[in-house]
Amino acid sequence: MQAYQRALEQHRPAKTGAPARGSIADVVARYIPITLDVNNIPDGLQICRWADVTLETRRGILRKYAREHGHKPIASVTTDELTRLLASMPPGAAENLLKAIRGLMNWGVEKGEIKTDPSVGVKLKRRKSGGFHTWTEQEIAQFEFHHPVGSKARLAFALALYTGQRRGDVIRMGRQHIRDGILHLKQRKTGAELAIPVHADLREILEATPSEHLTFIVNAWGKPFTPGAFSNWFREQCDAAGLPKVCSAHGLRKAACRRFAEAGCSAHEIMAISGHVTLAEVQRYTVAADRARLAKRAMAKATVIKARPKVSKKDGV
Fold first, then answer.
1. CA–CA separation, 145 vs 124, rounded Å?
2. Per-residue model confidence (pLDDT) at position 50
3. How distant is the alpha carbon of residue 53 from its chain centre?
4. Among 135, 232, 221, 223, CA closest to 172
5. Does 142 share its domain with 290?
6. Which residues have C-beta within 8 Å of that of residue 239, sequence separation ≥ 6?
7. Looking at the chain, which terminus has fewer C-beta neighbours within 10 angstroms, N or C?
8. Residues of the chain where predicted confidence (pLDDT) is lower than 70
């Protein structure tokens, strides 16, 4: 029994205490509650206030970074080290991590934890991707064919497509937001207050779909979705319809903007519904739609050109 007790003592895990002062884990632990928690901001503290969804994302990214690299002193982090770390990650994940680390390092400089910000010299490779895939009309029709009017999947799909909103706003929509045929919404990410006329097709779907909750879309337990859970659930609905993996809820927002542009809406008109902050984000749709219309007009003009006269071999051809 004595030998057994000695063996237990030798293999007993050491008690874990607070992270070493000045380590990455320590700085992250002090940074998150002050800077990334909107419910715990000391009076007078000047910080950058992000939207709730961004705060949640940044917290998760930094906690993961602290778990993997928390034992290192934050003052030992170099530009080369960050460059190698980010180069090993997918472009989107690398971009999000760099943004989170830059906020952390900037705060560390202000608090005297580090002298200079090592993330300043880090450059990421420019992504060639155009972002989220914009649903095509064929993909839209395929989803609608598989999920009939009256289903929860079709309702979620219609809310995204006919309002042009992000997933974080779609999951918060309820009947209380509709007054006199207008959907009144304050965007979660930007704070923009929108008044969107309810499309006739969306009105039909809303009337055909039972809803006994404050939000139109709820999970299996009758509770509102979180953004991440909604994305996972909507992915399952797309899989059930046989759609490719590139089809996402955010892609419906882009499809809505495309449709508005193809209908002849100006960039400002689209922004009044989508809530985009800058013109550059929606001008891509209007430019593409204008180009398509001009191409059709040019081809229509070309069809009126008389056919070339037939030339025989004796004419030297």
1. 41
2. 46
3. 9
4. 223
5. yes
6. none
7. N
8. 5-17, 34-53, 127-130, 304-317
Amino acid at 56: E
What is the domain count for the chain? Answer: 2
- CA dist 27 and 48 (Å) reads 18
- The reported pLDDT for the residue numbered 42 is 43
Q: Which single residue is written with the structure tokens 């809303």?
A: 206
d(CA 159, CA 252): 9
In angstroms, the CA 203 to CA 241 distance is 23
Does residue 209 lie within any of the structural domains?
yes
* pLDDT for the residue 193: 94
Planar angle of CA 217, 219, 223, nearest 5 degrees: 85
Q: Identify whether the C-beta of residue 172 lies closer than 8 Å to the C-beta of residue 216.
A: no
**pLDDT for res 35:** 65
Q: How many CB atoms lie within 10 A of CB 193?
A: 10
Measured CA to CA in angstroms, residue 245 lies from 139, 167, 226 at distances of: 12, 17, 21
Q: What is the pTM of this model?
A: 0.66
- Domain residues for 87? 19-110
